[in-house]
Amino acid sequence: MADGATGLRKSRVSAEEWQVRVELAALYRLVALHGWDDMIFTHISARVPGPDHHFLINPYGFYFEEMTASCLVKVDLGGNVVQETQSFINPAGFTIHSAVHAAREDAHFVIHLHTTAGVGVAAQKEGLLPIGQNACLLQHQVAYHGYEGLALNHEERERLVADLGDKPLMLLRNHGTLAVGQTAAAAWIGMFFLERACAQQVAALSGGRDHVLMAPDEAQAETREQGKGIGFIASLAWPGALRMLDRKLPGYDS
Asked: Which pLDDT tens digit goes with each residue over 49-75?
């Protein structure tokens, strides 16, 4: 665990912040459990409740399966660590996440991944195609941002948030996936459906584009309307995700 054997004590933060820490640590471990992590790279962040515009992010150098509520690092929008810790953060993670948190009031949780399928679809000119039900549910909610190299240039932040607009999902070209949510549940279900849609697209296109069947226009429109209930689905799925963690990868709430 970061900060040695103990990490941050629960008694040193508000109950509201601790709850966000638990949910954020759960997101990290869920990503690891699904095999979507990238060693010590990529990031998930959460806004700390209160007026200070602080957010929590992973300590650089630790695997997602190791994340706990107490080891997460609290930083401000300038990238400054604002708690006592021996850990530091990945500056590339700060660039992307600080941009989204600063620009979007609803961006309480931000997930960014580098999965094989996500990068695969992000590198395809047509982007996400209406090949499967997951894609039809999400296609109109996905934004796109062109690749500019490692996210170390703070000037990229304005372009990234302009491309994201008010959408909850993004394909970062040649780079990966991103999901924004007002709750951990919303961010998780958005990323889950997006990653599943990308994997289905890579599988469908593995035999070539010519004979792949796209969903009919009428079915796409119908599925888009049906997808407006995704928030309810998230509220049902999230408790189950936590129960799965308690069985398979417990300890995130410590």
From this structure: 988 889 999 999 999 999 999 999 999
